[in-house]
Specification:
Shape: globular
Distance between the termini: 12 Å
Strand content: 15-25%
Strand order of the largest sheet: 2-6-1-7-8
Number of strands: 8
Order of helices and strands: EHEHHEEEHHEHEHHEH
Bound molecules: 2'-deoxycytidine-5'-monophosphate
Amino acid sequence: MISVAIDGPAGAGKSSLSRKVAEHFGFIYVDTGALYRTVGLMFAQHGADTELNCNIEEILALTKVEMKFVNGEQRVFLNGEDVSEKIRTPEASMMASAVSAKPEVRAFLLEMQREMAKNNNVVMDGRDIGTVVLPNAEIKIYLTASVEDRAKRRYDELIAKGQEVTFQDVCEDMIKRDYNDMNRATAPLKQADDAVLADTTGFRFEDSLNLLINIVEKGIEAIK
Ligand code: DC
């Protein structure tokens, strides 16, 4: 099995690019952010805010997260309900970032991610895939871009979905989330020593995609 680990900050285009890279190579695309978002939603439904002044173990004991692939598309389920759309709001993003700092939550989701990679060729994206989840991944990429570029992409995405947000709010959320993700004690976002850096600042989508396909092709060649 071949694993491609793609890590990087929010809004770097990880999900859309990873999906396309997976499609190109015929691999399964696993979006691990969706798992943290699902846990974040569960905590929100139990009245928690981003301070998480709640009994984490107790809520986790009531949480069942499942990942299923419907027509090749990943869907996530919370206690049997498909929450794939519900988890895509700015509030869910902040809750995901908050719960993802908790070691209990990271441990809760770890095996599920490793299992996926054990049984399939995967392109898996997240924050700690190359460093913690799949440290032996054959190919590792750290995908990033300037904060302005990333906020602009996320803003366009949210507007296209009809959500009412301002560019400034999206930018501020992004800076806050970068800080949380990079400075948490457990599995912080950082480039793995053996990851290839892909900085797509100013790149069009197609150029970023070609860059990633190139990196993966070279990686596959190298292990043949
Ligand atoms: O990639 P995303 O925006 O959907 O991720 C949502 C949050 O989940 C993000 O703020 C950090 C967290 N996350 C994580 O800690 N580890 C991962 N492997 C994926 C996401």
